[in-house]
Amino acid sequence: MSSSSSSAAASSSSTLPRLPIFEAIASHDPASPAVVHSLSRRTFTYGNLLAHVSRARDRLQQAHGGADLNGQRVAFLVENGYDYVVTLLAAVAARAIAVPLSPAFPASELQYILNQSEASLLVSSAKFASKATQVLATDLTSSPIHLELPKHMGDDGPPGPVHLDDANPGGAGMMLYTSGTTNRPKGVLLPQSVLTAQSQSLIQAWDYTPADRLLHVLPLHHIHGTVNGLLTPLLAGSTVEFMFPFNADAVWGRLAAPFLPAAAAAAAADGPPADKITFFTVVPTVYSRLLSSHKSLSPEMQEAARKAVSPENMRLAISGSAALPTPIKRAWKDLSHGNVLLERYGMTEVGMALSCGLSFADRVDASVGWPLPSVQARLVDVDSGEVIQEGEELGPDGRERSGEIQLRGPTIFKEYWRNPEATAKEFVEGEDGNGRWFKTGDVAVRRPVPEAGQNSAQPWAHGPMYFIQGRKSADIIKTGGEKVSALEVERELLSLPQIAEAAVVAVPSGKWGQKVGAVLVLDPEHVKGKWTPMDMRRALRDRLANYKIPQVMKIVDDIPRNAMGKINKKQLVKAVFADEFSEDEV
Ligand code: AMP
C-alpha cells in the first residue's frame, strides 16, 4: 500500500507531546540554527523545527489510516540532513518507536529489520523511494505501509506556533539494530526516557552548549551518530552540521574554511563565512584517515586546518566506538597544536557509559575514563565471578584483575525487541535490591592514575580509571593457561612504525587452546623489503611478555571494517587463519 505525500494533513493540530526533547527545542533561541547542510550551507532554525515535526507527525498518522501509532514501529530510510531529523522526531512525536535504517544496507538486511520489528510504516525520502519499493517487493512477513516524504521538509509551509500538551510519553522511543557479529541483529529498544537520560548525562560531562557547532560525518543508524551526534546537541541547543558520507579532503576543506586567509574575501562575495566547528565526535579510523589526508593538502590549507582543530577553536574532539590507538592520539595532538583526543566507551544497549574528562590531564592514554553521570558501573572478576571492589584491583599474585563491565541506571536500554531470552541472558539481578545489571560482554581493568581525576568541576571523573581489554567473546585470548588482551597487543603492534593497521585474534589450537594471531597491514614508508614473524617478535620482545607476543602472523592489504570502523574478528580469523586452525607452533 502506498500513501502519497500530497495528502498531508491540512489541519494540523500543532500540538506535540510535552517530552523533554520537545520542551528543550521549544526553549532554544528560535533564530539559532539547529541543522545546517554543509555543502549547500542551507540552515534550519530551532524556531521552525517543531512545526515541521508536527506536520510530519500528521503525515505519519494519516499514512497509518489515522490509527494511533503509539508504540508502533516507524522504520525510515532518509539521508543525513534536516529531513532525517524531522522524520525521527515526528515518529517520537507520534509516540512511536523510530527505527532508522541504513540506506547502505542490502535489501535482505532491511527486509530482516522490517520483519523483526514488525514495522507499521516504512517512510522514505524521495531519494530512497525506489530502495523502499525494492524492499517492499521482497517476501515480507510484516506489511508496512510505504510513505514517501515530500522533498525538503524545511520548505513545508509557513511554520506556525506549536503547543506542547500531554506529557505522557506512551511508547515513544527509538530502536537500533546491533551489528550482529555472531547472531542475527537484535533490536535494542531505547525508550525516550532512556534517550533523554543518555543525552543529559553527556551534556553534563561534555558541556554541549548553544555555542557549539558539530560537524556530523557519521552514519545515522548507530548510537554514536544518533545520540551523541544528534539528539544530545538538539537537547542542548547546539548546531549540527551534516557532511555525509565522510570524505577526508572535504572535511579538511570545511574545517579549514574559516581560517583560510581568503575566507573573509570569499565570504563577502558568496555569503556569510562558514562558522568554525567546535565539536567533533568520530571513530578512530576517521582520525586516521584525516591524519593521512592532511599530508597531501596545500601548505596554506594545512596551516588553516591545524588552526581549525587546535584547542582554542575545536573545543572538543572525541573518539570512540573502537579502541583509539595511541599513535593516532599522539599524531592528532602534534597536528592540532596540542589538542588531546577524549576517548569514551559505549554501546548500542547503554549509550555512553565511560568517558575521560574535559581537562587534558583526564584524557589518559589507553583509558576510557570513569562512569559518566547517572551511570553505575562495576567490574565482575572474569575468573571468580566476584565484584572487584575499589582498592581490590590487584589479585594475590600482584597482577591486575580483569572483570566484565556491568552497568545499570537510567541510561540502560529496556529490552531486545521480541527476544525475552536474549534480554534475560544479558542481565543479572543486583544483590542489593537496587535493580539488575546489564552484562556488557566487555572486559576491563581499573587502575589508579594519580595525576588524573583532580578536576573539581567534573566530580564524576574521579577515582581509579577504566582500561578496556576487549570483548570477552573475541578479544580475550586464552593461550596455554594465560589470558591475553587482544587490544593490549594491538596497541603495542600499532606503536611500531612498520605497522599501519593491526587486528589481534584468537586462533584455535589443539596445543594451546588458542594462539595469539596477528593480522597486519604494513606501512610501505617504513617497510622496504620483507617483514617477517621474526621481525615482529624482535620488535615486541621488550614491550610484551613472551606469552602475549603473537605466535602466528599474516600480512594483508586491507582489514575489512564496518561503517563504524569495527572489525568482525570472527569472520577475520576464519578468512585469514583457516589453514592454521589445527596446526601448532613449536
Ligand atoms: P556498538 O554497540 O556497535 O556501538 O559496539 C559497542 C562495542 O564497541 C563495545 O561493546 C566495545 O566492545 C566497543 N567499544 C566502544 N567504545 C570503545 C572504546 N573506546 N574502546 C574499546 N572498545 C570500544
TrEMBL record:
Domain AMP-dependent synthetase/ligase positions: 22-417
State the source organism's domain of life.
Answer: Eukaryota
Q: Which GO terms describe its molecular function?
A: medium-chain fatty acid-CoA ligase activity
| Domain AMP-binding enzyme C-terminal: start-end pairs | 488-566
InterPro entries in the record, alphabetically? AMP-bd_C, AMP-bd_C_sf, AMP-dep_synth/lig_dom, ANL_N_sf
CDD domains for this protein: MCS
Signal peptide limits: none
An example of a Gene Ontology BP annotation on this entry? fatty acid metabolic process
What protein name applies here? AMP-dependent synthetase/ligase domain-containing protein
